[in-house]
UniProtKB/TrEMBL annotation:
Residues 271-310 are annotated as: Disordered. It comes from candidate division WOR-3 bacterium. InterPro entries: AAA_dom, DNA_Partitioning_ATPase, P-loop_NTPase. Residues 19-194 form the AAA domain. This is ParA family protein.
Amino acid sequence: MFSPESGTGFSAAAPARARRIAVCNQKGGVGKTTTSVNLAAALARRGGRVLLVDLDPQAHATLGLGVDRTKLGASVYEALNEAQRVEEALLRDRAENLDLLPGAIDLAAAEVELVDAEDRENRLGRALGLVDREYRFVVIDCAPSLGILTLNGLVAADSVLVPVQAEYYALEGISRLLETINRVRRALNPRLEVEGVLLTMYSTRLTLARQVAEEVRGFFGEQVFETVIPRSVRLAEAPSFGRPIFEYDGQSAGAQAYAALAAELLARRRMRPDGTQEIRTTGTRSGGEGAGEQEHSPRLSVPATEGEEG
């Protein structure tokens, strides 16, 4: 198991540019934005600068860092339309070592405006290319849909982290997301890989949560992070105070879980060989009704790695 203290943080050598991680699931209510904000904050606390990109028209990641989305001079919307405005839109030091490229309500219009735009799927990547050498990681909070905005996130990203709620219908819609990832990889972004699948809103007191966790691990295998994110009142409260969980309650189970997730992600990245890995979209689901039937399930050649509420 990974502890919050696992590892020593980033390696001394700075990368040529930031590693970009898109946090994506078109199913709402899975802890996508909570994970984006707190994973970004956890990585930033380990010593390297991190950029959080709010690509969700609801702009909840922006609100979660205490920014009024209605009073922005510029946002990711302007950066999508004019890449050079990305510097103008950046909000520095919203938390320790953490910058924000904020979202705005205007992003809803971008879904329509970009449909016929030239090079529409590369807008975010072009903007990030102007600034991301400042950072070790860029974490992209994608929209809860598979439209143009999410496509921009996937084309800009090196990898995708998929949060999955430890509740009924946990796997609903994942097949479509994985097919989208593979289409993007084949046509637009050959380096794109799955960073991992993260179980969220997990309660050790619920039999259903344990059953769902077992099913998800059986379905995705080594791609599932060992770390699970607990169902936590403190995690739910933190955004209303405009602070990541580490600033709101650093001793809470949620803070410990996201610190452990950052440690595990860094350990996996050190262990993973360089180069693009295969993403297969069919696999056999074991056990239960329909065993032996082909299901849409990604399989990566990922090396094996060696909370509770509150």
